[in-house]
Amino acid sequence: MSLPLVRQAAWASKGRLSQRLIRSGVPVALRRASTTTVSSSMTTQGDDDASRHIILPNPSRPDFKTHAHLVPTGIAEQFAILHACIQSGSMDRAQRVLTELYRNRPDEMKVFVDTQMFNTFLNGFARGLQPDTNGCLSWFDRMASYGITPNHDTYAILIKGYIQVELFQTVKLLLQDMRRNTSISLESVLSSDFLDHKHVSQCHRILDEFKGSKQSDVQAMMTELDQALKKVLGESYVNRGKMELMMEPSATELSSITESKDGKSASSFDPDRPIYENIPEARSTKAVGVRFLQDQLTALQNTQEALKMDPYDLQMELERQGYEVALQRMIHEREASRERGDPLAAMHLTPLRKILWEWHKRVIPMIEAEIAECEGKTDVERRTYGPFLKLLSPEKLSIITIFEMLKLHNSSGIADGMKTARAVIEVGKAIENEHNAVYMKHHKTIKQNELRQLYQSGRMFNMAVRRAHQKEQEAKQQQQQQLAADPGLATDLSALRSNSSAWQPVWPNSIRAKIGSVLSSMVIDAARIPVRSYDPDTNEKIVEQIPAFFHTYQYVRGKRVGIIKFSEHLTNIISREPLRDTLHPRLLPMLVHPRPWLAYNDGGYLTAKSVCMRVKDSPEQLVYLAKASENNNIDQVLKGLDVLGSTKWRVNKQVFDVILEAWNSGEAIADIPPAITKSLPLPEKPSNYDSDPKAKFHWVTRVKEIQTNEKNFHSLRCDVNYKVETARAFLNLPMYFPHNMDFRGRAYPIPPTLNHLGNDLCRGILCFDEAKPLGERGWRWLKIHLANLYGYDKHSFTEREQFTMDNLENIMDSVQKPLTGRKWWLAAENPWQCLSACYEVAAAVESGSPEQFASRLPVHQDGTCNGLQHYAALGGDRAGAQAVNLAPGDRPADVYTGVADLVNKLVEKEAAEGDEHAQLLVGKISRKVVKQTVMTNVYGVTFIGAKAQIENRLKERGDLPPEKIYALSGYLAKKVFASLGEMFNGARQIQDWLTDSARRIAKSIPKETLQECGAMPFDSPEEEAEFKARLAGNPVAKRRGARKKVTRVFSARNPTANQMTSVIWTTPLGLPIVQPYRRHGKKQVTTLLQTVFIEDPDASRPVNAMKQSTAFPPNFIHSLDATHMLMSAVACYDQGLTFASVHDSYWTHASDVDAMNKVIRDQFIELHNQPIMDNLINEFKERYKDYQVPTTHELEPASASAAKKRGRRTTKNAKTDDFADDASASPLTSSSSSARTPMSAEEAMFGSMDDDEDDDDLIDEVEPDTAAESGLDDENDATQAAKRYHYGWEPLTFAPLPEKGEFDINEVKQSDYFFH
């Protein structure tokens, strides 16, 4: 990009421009970067379902990473270093890193570097008080040669640099050149996130200096600049010259939505909200994690001050707090102690806090010294991690490392320690998260004043943002269309990929491990525990400083693992203070409406970067999610998450008071465990302890059980302590729960401590913020709801109403004397929720007119074994539909009781026949015994899992011989499975079809991959020639071709080592789901502590075929119930209903239950009126077209003899199960008569330079005496002739769908108990 006039103006004296250069007429032109049409295998959304499917190349294909835009680990590490250098101000190092990358990896850089990344690099030169404008312009000049086109942010960065050095003439020339050669508007430049208000306001000096120009193009530019400044600056531009010019501008363009629906400003909290003061303190477990949470909630402790603040400002304050809060608290306590004349803080700091402070003081100088050592060193390791140590202050690095190491105590099954690999990665990840929080704080994609105005708009918030986002998307589409019509337009496709201007690369685990190991080793060296002892020579009392941690190795499950152990003294100190659940402040409930999900990675908290899906070690899922978001395929899914996040909650003050009193009493009440002030008594050691191994075993087992219970009680109390402290802080404030989802689409609140998906205590302590009059129907549903919560939910609605009225006296007693009266509510299935409903019913009765009472209580409508409901609907199974209330009935059907009855009949029959197990179980199989197994059977519970579930239930009975329970649980699990198969035959057929289809997919391989590795012939000579030509031009393949060849091939005999196909499907709402089950790929990383092995994102790992097949049925059903929930959420929102859900339990106000019930049924019918199974098999056929599966066929004796004569080799240990899952089996080598070198998996993905020759079909011989081992029919005796098999490939096909039954899904409308 050539800018001679701009460059010379920059070198001229400040504020002057050489008239000679202007008169010279040297052309000032931007090079137009060449653009090419980018082809994509993705399909766009259309009318038919197939058009909504996102189909990408298989991960085994070399073009997958190109489509996926996955950055290789080596480049990702350098990108992370580059970003760290930019943020720490080391631009010389940043330039060297970028230069080396372009020199050594030019092809990859063309793919992975975009305008967004380059802008962040340029901004490193332009920011600060002394910007390097020459360096910025130099790299700007190289953009065209790198194939990168500048956008509005690029010019904003250049303008910012020249404004700061007051070269306004250069700014004018830049703007002129931009207008002449690009379609970028001045308004978009001035609106850039890289320009703050001060920089934009300085642009008026350009108008003042050049408004008298006679040049027509300059006059036109000045007019456009004037209009742009008016729009961006608003009133402050009109009043320029005054002091207001330097203040934050107002968002005049958003003024139309600054009033709430009732005309009141929403800039503060609801003034009519009752204020609760003098709230009692909660009894503390003395856990550091709880104290850390209290530190985070300090901004909410002063209720009066908090309520006066703008909710947006208060939310921002909460999110800005991090480890810095803990650090400042420690410093404050230390300084306060010194002022009191207590330098040791002996009376105000716990022993652990004193120790942590000493560690902190020792670690800080060590970090500072290490940073100094990293400067200018040629040491490779220090050059790698050095830039990251400068991103945060040494004080913050120290406190983060200390807290993270303490949090990992007893993690990963390591007693009194942690795995080194996990420790160093977790520390590195914590450093990254804290840096990202600080970075996002200074690089917001939406300006603060605009956000404040949007939050003030109340329920119009989502609509306002989505409307603006829709306009932005339409503008981008127009730009793309213009680009297609005129390739000369200076519009960069890569810049259109993201809505955010800030480039923020994710740190690879290798980087995290190196940073974490450096800091962890410092803490290990600095951490000492003072221990009182005696001098062995003088016998005087002394204090020894012993190490708090030490690094060692131990064997875990047969593998030698590096661990960091806690010393015994440190373990004793923190034994009562578990830290594992320490919270990050950005995971607290929000005070304002969450940011709407505008894209898959844009929504949720204000500053914390979030993704709408929780994905772990599955880059393939993220790629599909990003593509679906880019295609606007998941808009309805994101809208559903927005609806869930828009529900406004508050703490139920009455229930909170009871919980607080119960908590402070220390007694075990409901699900609050007792406070343990001293260790539980242990049983006496038996007299025959040393002589009887069985007696010793039973005593040790009992002791361990008591000690485990003691630890569990304390852990549970800490969990309750977190919930109580959070509820106490939000007692006078509203709460919102931003939501995201798992890979199946099931929604979850992001804040983990207190939310409505939590346990009974969490649900009982929460209620809706908005109150609605009950009305006649609402009063009825409130009474039914209380009966449901008590456990009286298997009766008709009329009987449930009557149950509540019959127990009105108990309800009043529960409300008036919850902890001292009859405690009727404690006998409920859900005691805390029942107590909450008791308060609501009592208040409605006492109001004198229950129908007029304004209720905030969420009323639940729960599905009847929702997974079986979906199976029955899919299969049209009438018997199954009646069992799960899809079909109408006078009373609610109870599938669990139905299964229990069937099992009892089988047991009674076998008991009469003399079966010992059946005789022990007669009359003892209740609904509770079988419920969990029935519930989870539809979600793929295995026989072992079902057996363990039933074993736990049988133990709870206490009336069965303990030594018989294990055998009885296995016997009973078989009966439960048999009864389920009899009751839900249609569901079982669909489940079997799903399992079979997933098994076929998991073992399939793309035909192109097999052809390119020589396992199959090409379809035509032209395809083969095209492949060779592509291979010849692939520099990556050339480099690999020079490597030593290996002997692995794609083998139809042992396909599992090469299986690269995940089961992928699209939900009815357009969400692509990729099952993440693959085998682990490890990468070795050397750190200061030890060599660690981390997950290798570059490794093309084969799928776990067994897990792919067994997990698909439950995952598919989960995706359907998630779809139904999101559809219902959006429909309820459109009707003005408040909505919340706990998977298949839907909540709303009592007065709106009837309306919600209609929505639930309508959406279920709408969902299942679609040909879901037909769509699924059609998608599979489209997605896995031309995929091949390995096959095995027995050869006729004549063919076998002929094959033997042709020199086919034999193998003894042949595996003929084409679903084999043994990746360690030795592969076959080529048996072609013309020898050729087999391909490695790496070469198969990226190509090979070898000539292609077709492999003959592979044939193996199985000796008779090994037939049984091979899974063959071994009926023939040892004298039978050897059998021979043909191994090959054939197209992937699917079994026909099971026939659908006669059940009409529209009958759901008449089922009163479908959800109840």
Could you explain the architecture of this structure?
- There is one protein chain.
- This protein is of the alpha+beta class.
- The chain is built from 52 helices and 24 strands.
- A hairpin with a 2-residue loop joins strand 20 (1140-1142) and strand 21.
- Residues 1-50, 241-267, 342-348, 482-499, 577-585, 1036-1048 and 1206-1280 have low confidence and may be disordered.
State the main characteristics.
1316 residues; 52 helices; alpha+beta; 3-stranded antiparallel β-sheet; 8% strand; disordered N terminus; 4-stranded antiparallel β-sheet; globular
* Unreliable stretches covering 5 or more consecutive residues: 1-50, 241-267, 342-348, 482-499, 577-585, 1036-1048, 1206-1280
| Average pLDDT, all residues | 76
Shape: globular
- How many whole angstroms does the radius of gyration measure? 35 Å
Q: What fraction of residues sit in β-strands? A: 5-15%
**Order of strands in the sheet with most strands:** 15-22-24-23
Helical content class: 40-55%
Coarse structural class: alpha+beta
Number of discrete helical segments: 52
Largest sheet: 4 strands, antiparallel
Number of strands: 24
Kindly, what is the distance between the CA atoms of the first and last residues, rounded to a whole number of angstroms? Answer: 68 Å
